[in-house]
Amino acid sequence: MKYITIIGDGMADEPIAALGGKTPLEFVAGKNLARGAGGAIGRVRTCPEGLPPGSDVAFLSLMGHDPLKCYRGRSPLEAAGEEVSLAEDEVSFRMNLATIAGDYKGGVMASYNGDGIDGQDAYDIASSLVSDPDFAALMEQAQMHITVTPTFRHIAVVKATEEPFDLTPPHDIAGRVIDDYQPRGQKAELLRALQETAHRVLEDHPVNLRRKAEGKLPANAVWFWGAGRATILQSFEGQFGRKGTAVSAVPLVRGIAWLSGLRAPRIPGATGALDTNYQGKVAATLKALLEDGDDFALLHLEAPDDLSHLGDTEGKVESIRRLDERMVGPVLDALTASGQDFRVLLMPDHYTLLRTQTHDGTPVPYAIYDSRRPGKPRLFCEAACADQPVLEGGVALLKKLFEME
Fold first, then answer.
1. Contact status, residue 221 vs residue 195, Cβ threshold 8 Å
2. How far apart are the first and last CA of the chain?
3. What confidence category does residue 25 fall into, taking pLDDT thresholds of 50, 70 and 90?
4. Is the confidence at residue 316, as pLDDT, over 80?
5. Which of 46, 76, 105, 287 gives the lowest tally of CB atoms within 10 Å of its CB?
6. Any idea which fold 2-71+234-401 has?
7. Cβ-proximal residues to 29 (8 Å cutoff; 6+ apart), any chain
């Protein structure tokens, strides 16, 4: 038996007036998602009450952990995905490249990801920033080192005490003046100075001047958030008796997978955006299951969440359509053609609301397709699962997927 979880990040939502009162998932009415919903359907609480609703908490849950027991912040999970290890006296942050419109003081968070900057441009901007004398001097004062990546996501690590950090996720303040959301708590003055210095250094960076000439937003700022200490997780295989692979473009997901003892390959051209390497991700997933002998695979698409944070209704609809056509369909077809028995879990990790452009902790819908009992296709959406009981946590859901109870 082969098992696979396919996750459309932030795919769940509220009814949208522009979509005729339907949610994006309901509006798309994907035929392959409907195939999956021919099996069991239900709801699951991936983000326990008392913890921030987001992919860090949700993916801990969906890889078999109780976030209430092991969650220590987002950034150390991402750090693991970039092969950055933490000492006991260190704390890591996510350092986003971002876009601040206007002067820094009184400026507005125009883009939490620097208008989607990635690749060589992202690497060049972040690299030049950490080598700038003024920024580097502040890093030294903060006892900070930064790991640069070819994405808008970079990892900062500092020596720290137990005093808390108070940092706001940039995607939660899209379109807002940043002044009221500056860092508070430990090292707050230095973190604020680093952010303000970065804006001055990056505003006229050659990459940003070119981006502006091309009609793109400049990645003219950085934003620290997601502070956390080193995380130790239980083995996935030890808990569930299955070895596996997680296929994602996002360091957070790769990091949780790696800490759980799952393989987490990097897929060329996988960006985490709408324009990603769907074929390559599906191929890696199928290779893990059908050639490499894995029992379990997790296949993740980040785009629905990203587009929800941007308030892009049309983009979110298109991302779900692509998930259905380019990921769910090919996986179901290939596994069916293999002649092996398999079970597929389809779901979002959490709600991301277009209305607020932020996450929501409402229990999410799920469907489990079983090749031995395929069932009649039916619409997979929030409303279709609304009367179903709620499973508490991803451990219970994985046990259901693996028929362990």
1. yes
2. 16
3. very high
4. yes
5. 105
6. Alkaline Phosphatase, subunit A (3.40.720)
7. 379, 381
At residue 74, the pLDDT reads: 87
Give the residue from 357, 14, 315 showing the smallest Cα distance to 172.
357
Please give the distance of CA 85 from its chain centroid, rounded to a whole number.
20
Is pLDDT at 366 greater than 80 in this prediction?
yes
pLDDT digits (tens, 9 = 90+) for 84-121: 889 889 999 999 999 999 999 999 999 999 999 999 99
Question: What is the CA angle 274-277-280, rounded to 5?
Answer: 150
Q: Are 123 and 154 in contact (CB under 8 A)?
A: no
Rounded Cα distance between 204 and 28, Å, is 42
Q: Are strands 390-392 and 40-45 parallel, antiparallel or unpaired?
A: parallel
Average pLDDT over the chain, rounded to an integer: 96
How many residues appear in the chain? 405
Question: 0.85 exceeded by the pTM?
Answer: no
> In this predicted structure, what is the pLDDT of residue 405?
64
CA 405 to CA 394: how far, in whole Å?
Answer: 14
Between CA 246 and CA 312 the distance in angstroms is 27
Give Cβ neighbours of residue 273 (< 8 Å, ≥ 6 apart).
116, 118, 302, 303, 306
Rounded distance between C-alpha atoms, residue 378 and residue 116, angstroms: 35
Q: Three-state DSSP class for 400?
A: helix
What does the domain layout of the chain look like in residue ranges? 2-71+234-401, 90-228
Amino acid at 326: R
Amino acid identity, position 95? M
